[in-house]
Amino acid sequence: MKQYLQLDPWNIIEEGFDPHHHEISESVFSIGNGYMGQRANFEEVYSGSSLQGSYMAGVYYPDKTRVGWWKNGYPEYFAKVLNATNWIGINVLIDGETLDLAVCKVTEFVRVLNMKEGTLSRSFIAQTPEGKIVKIEALRFISIAHKEIGAIRYAVTALNFSGSLSLTPYLDGDVSNKDSNYDEKFWLEVFKEVTPDDAALTMKTKKLDFHITSVMAYSLLKNGEPLTVTPEMIHQDKYVAHQLQLEVQENDQVVLYKYVANVTSRDHDCDQLITVGRTHLTSAMELGFEALLQEHLTAWDVKWRESDIVIEGDVAAQQAIRFNIFQLNQTYTGEDDRLNIGPKGFTGEKYGGSTYWDTEAYCLPFYLSTADASIARNLLIYRYKHLEKAKENARKLGFSKGALYPMVTMNGEECHNEWEITFEEIHRNGAIAYAIYNYVNYTGDTAYLGQYGLEVLTEISRFWEERVNYVPAKDQYMMLGVTGPNEYENNVNNNWYTNSIAVWTMKYTLEVLNDLQKNEPALYDELINKMNLTEDETSKWCDIIAKMYYPHDEERQIFLQQDGFLDKDLTPVKELDPSNLPLNQQWSWDRILRSAYIKQADVLQGIFTLRDQFDLATVKRNFDFYEPLTVHESSLSPCVHSILACELGYKEKAYEMYLRTSRLDLDNYNNDTEDGCHTTSMAGTWMSVVQGFGGLRVKNGALCLNPFNPGHWKSFSFKVMFRNSRLKVTVGEHDVTVSNETETSINVNVYGNDYTVNGLSQIKVSL
Ligand code: BGC
């Protein structure tokens, strides 16, 4: 754990330059706009350790699978988010010496991520080996008002010399991924051009033919006055630049504005990319840096109005929750239903930037509550569009029908290649089905079911139907050879969570079918025909629902994570010598698998998801049994525990678990932030506040709140959108205030009592 960042409610601040922290900071200070994202790499040359990362959403590379022992059913490739053209680069030469923080003496270094405004700034004083001293002030943003545009203001002040200064803004397509199975580069040059006014570079991927065009232009000021310099136009392999040669006097300040438009063949024909890029760039230049920035700030202001959480009396918690919200908002904006949320967002390459069950199980509630319903709907449509591929995936694994959604995907095809996960961690199908329920329950958009949802539900139910096996001697259905959410157990029989979510899916699918038959018989007939759904199938589902086997311990009255779980040594984690932790770094895989230690919520994930099915005493018994065995070595784990602990009144536990997720990256808890931030688990942190401390649930179409103040804060407040209204819920030391920020009145239930909150008014209820 490294705590080197300053506390502040709206900013992440790094003071002083320590190269050991640099790659962590490159992740933490990343910026993005849903369309593209950028790690906080320096503009100028940096010869120290750095992970370069410029990502364009949806642009990926199918890197040929590399495994030691090939198994039938493995995918041919692992899709990787691509480190694309470096568009931020500006080389600086001071009287012939390269500005490089790895070799200069650096003082007064400050790097700031301004979360309110969505900007990254950096200032420092650098002394070159020859003794020339410059002050640099850089400000960068990726516009959320003009998604193709990134802009940089880069100011250089000569502090102790008069001489030459060379500034070279460039585009460099000769970039690589750290994570490349065969150490190859993924890009080929297609086109480049440098004119006195701009420079353009088009690169394409070696496979799949994704094209990215970047077009850049600049303007210069010297001591506040516009400056015209004839640039030297540089073309090199996969590289274009303008070299600007200047003479400066001591104390002169030169400001370079660099504007870049990045466009891709995902949105435009390849032969149009240069024209489209230039058009965006020209509009950006016409607006100018300040106006562009203003529009960007205004757009962020709207996002914060919809999603901010305010925590009074604890600046570390305040900063952390805003950091989580900021990352989620800059990773996914929901405008493009072909995009999704990778576990690292735009902050690193790990997990390939691909889609996991994290989206449905963790991220969906955040977008449901903080944005228009169309945003969350697009996350569902993404899976609907992948239904055919999910069916193909099931066929590939030998199923005669149904759909198995992939564990990891970019385009609907499975990319994951560890048999115990790819073939066995099938609970992911349940999360995708449950997300449909969650969306419809929250938004009331029942039309979604007939339009898209039912087809997905049916194919998933069909998969479960074939995946279970009937055991005549017991007259029960079982599910053998699976991996539950706890990946520290593989190839187990009857994972309680998987059996439960499978049955839940079939029940819900039948319910949706019945409702549709009653309410929209014509559409029902059309869909039954389209899907060829027979009564034999639905009767089979009913039989499975009635006769599913669930492992259970009579004595303790708990659900068993899987068959045989109680045969393990059940020594709780707190009795382990801490030198054993984290298990995934200290123990062999074999030892982990044999132990009872749980990586992340499993039975408790099921209880959390299907909460309405269990009384509080059942929740308590299972929580008390499983939590002490849990090592939380997935960032997705603590939030589920925090939310259940809130319900159980375990305030300290709830708060402890909350802290573990909320500052995970800011304090580099897991010593892995340099690989990227844990973006999907950030949605879990948000859930801990809103569903945990706020106790928000939707029951029978009504918003219910059950808030408590965890005691470490003077107050906290959160915003939620619900059915055309936006509410601000403030939980103080003695009471809860629910303010309706919109004009539509809304009914809410607080601590079991119903209230109407009229438009633009509020109610107060004692805690
Ligand atoms: C977790 C999975 C998760 C993945 C990506 C793994 O460590 O066990 O549940 O989907 O990370 O976040």
TrEMBL record:
Active site: E487 (proton donor)
GO BP: any one term: carbohydrate metabolic process
InterPro entries, alphabetized: 6-hairpin_glycosidase_sf, 6hp_glycosidase-like_sf, Gal_mutarotase_sf_dom, GH65_N, Glyco_hydro_65_C, Glyco_hydro_65_M, Glyco_hydro_65_N, Malt_Pase/Glycosyl_Hdrlase
Chain residues that bind substrate: W357, D358, K599, Q600
Domain (Glycoside hydrolase family 65 central catalytic) ranges: 322-687
A GO molecular-function annotation: hydrolase activity, hydrolyzing O-glycosyl compounds
PANTHER family per the UniProt record, alphabetical: GLYCOSYL HYDROLASE-RELATED (PTHR11051), MALTOSE PHOSPHORYLASE (PTHR11051:SF14)
NCBIfam families (alphabetical): PRK13807.1 (NF010380)
Protein's name according to its UniProt entry: Maltose phosphorylase
Species: Paenibacillus antarcticus
